[in-house]
Each structure stands twice: as C-alpha cells, then as structure tokens.
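Box 3.1 A note on notation
Throughout this textbook, protein chains are presented in two layers. The first layer is the amino acid sequence; the second is a token string describing backbone geometry. Keep the layers aligned when reading.
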Amino acid sequence: MGGGIRNENTVAYLIDNNIDRIVLGTIAVTNPKLVEEISLKFPGKIAIGLDAKKGFVTTEGWSKTKKITVTELAKKYEDIGIKHIIFTDIDKDGVLEGLSFDQLQDLLESTSINVIASGGVASLEDIKKLKKISVKNPNLVGVIVGKAIYENRLNVDHAINLLDEKK
C-alpha cells in the first residue's frame, strides 16, 4: 500500500491491519532518516517508490523534480537494507508507449535491490522484453500494469502464462 504515507504511526497502523508491504515515496527523498528508522522497525515490510523524470527522482505527485538520480537514491537505500523498489518513469506512465527500458536497465545493474517495473507497459511484447531482461537481472521481480489492461491491450492470463514459461 502506498500514497501519502508520511509517518511511522501510519506505517504501524497499516502493518497492524495486515498490510504486507508499505510503499514510501516522497518521504524517501525528503526524510531518509525517518525511512531508515521505519525500515529497521519493520524489516522487509518497506518498499521505496521511485518515480523518475529523465532519470531524476520526482516527488509530491510528480510535481517536483529533485537533483538526485534514481540510481543514486536506490544505492543509498540498498545500504540501509531496503529490499524492494517500485520504479516508475513518469514520462511513460499511462501513455502505452512501452517502458523506459534503458533507465530500468541502469537501475537493475547499479543495485541488487529487487525492482518492480511500472509505467508504460503497452502490450505482451513489453512483458516479453521484461522477461528477457530478468534473465541477466534476477532483481527484476515484478511489473505493474494498468492502462494496458483497462484498454484490453494486454490479456492478464496471457501475460501470466508467458511469465510462467521456462526461461
């Protein structure tokens, strides 16, 4: 669960109510010390949502671009034990033009954190590309698909079957 989570009390409440993973976004940039404290208190329960525009982290609903790259911030969180990142290229999100494979590849190669790709999946071809990337980058552990499903451009059963096939 993610979106607008800004303090430890909210995280504790959500975890106490059986939420398995909490996604922290803006706070991961604005208050990394607090995120470190939260991640130590709730090991394995915290993921970082990294939204990017041209490789730089954006915050506050994509309204502000920071002077830190996604890979720089990912490395910092790797050092404190964060296990999952949800990476979204905001220029690709919701436009059905395919993922930002170059940025994703850079992130995967610069960190061992598990990455969930998001933003831009347009078809089964994108899922095939992700599967191919995951062979060399086992830290690519998931994908979030939205608009392609809603607009019937991607069949969920076909995507699952493709991903279940032997590499």
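The mean pLDDT is 90. The chain has eight helices and seven strands.
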